[in-house]
Amino acid sequence: YMTLEDVDVSGKRVFVRVDYNVPLDEHGNIVDDVRIRETIPTINYLIDRGAKIVLASHLGRPKGERNPKYSLYPVAKRLERLLEKTVKFLPDCVGRDVEEAVSSMKDGDVVLLENLRFHPGEENNDPEFAKALASLADIYVIDAFGTCHRKHASMYGIKDFVKPVVMGFLLERELRYFEKALVNPQRPVVAFLGGSKVSSKLGVITHLLEKVDKIFIGGAMAFTFLKAQGYSVGSSLVEDDMFDEALSVIEKAKKLNVKFYLPVDFVCGQAVSEQTPVMEVAWQEIPKGWLGLDIGHASVTLIKEILKDAQTIVWNGPMGVFEIEKFKFGTFSLAHAIAESPALSIAGGGDTDYAIHKAGVVDDISYISTGGGAFLKLLEGKKLPCLEAITKRD
Ligand code: 3PG
């Protein structure tokens, strides 16, 4: 694939598709700006070389309509602070005004376009819309790793209208770490998976079994695995229609000689709330009317044991309802245990990134992916369609 370093960007209009789909609170304030900060190296590289930088992203799911709730304006303000430089915000992403604003840019200028998804053409991969975006670019950079599983106009359709399309530094780094962890890893490779639904992680679990040496499944998924084997799990969350799948995962692990672990104890409550009474019990002793909401101390000891000889660690999904103080122990302990391990560690996918930040161990994880769905696609062993849009090296 061609990367930024393969092209001469000075004086050129460089269109950079980023993923600034960041969480906002009810007042429109940015709650977490990691996705913005992670694009700074690409932008600074372009500024230093005197490119004219046109940034574009989606935010939320405005369904093809202009909606001020999903404006990227607050992102432009945050970016200005991070870059210590003026970022001109344009109130649309295509059209005459945008073309004029871009054509009057000076070398080193940065503009951010308004939300691409205010136009239905973005998600429909409409060639006309792709063409309009491409007309703003001499060089097109894809740095939106988090959106690489979406075949949208700005991520995919543009390839028919602009050359070259190159990878930005964020995308390159994501793929490099993924390769280190799961394509050519140092062994043993250990995976920790959490979250509530086996149904949404089945593809990930099945694929990882072929790649790892040990796998630990926590979060509410564990109860589906226990119940499928005939154990009682009190009132814990269970997916009854996934028992066959759960059993065949266990079977497959055996066949492939992958060590398969479930938690050995749980912190239980009577409701998913801050006020509930709690107790910690062994895995086979969850009483009626109680539900497991976190893993317990013995499970954390087991996790540390599993990690002892690990050379590579992959982590996706929380071990419990960590948003509630009483049930954060397992997820935070796992974050700390991974942080303390000298192994190469990669983590990602939605809540995981947030949990790592809350646990305060960001600097001790080798790589935290900026992707949610895109990271999971890679863990499932699927190709990211948008990589096809990138121009191949000769
Ligand atoms: C994400 O946050 O996973 C990406 O930005 C993609 O967003 P989407 O799920 O709305 O397409």
TrEMBL record:
Residues annotated to bind substrate: 19-21, 35, 58-61, 117, 150
UniProt keywords (A-Z) are:
ATP-binding, Cytoplasm, Glycolysis, Kinase, Nucleotide-binding, Transferase
Identify the Pfam families for this entry: PGK
Q: Where does ATP bind?
A: 201, 292, 323, 349-352
Q: Where does it primarily localize? A: cytoplasm
Q: What class of enzyme is it?
A: transferase
Q: Which family does it belong to?
A: Belongs to the phosphoglycerate kinase family.
Q: How does it assemble?
A: Monomer.
Q: State the name under which the record lists this protein.
A: Phosphoglycerate kinase
Q: Which gene encodes it?
A: pgk
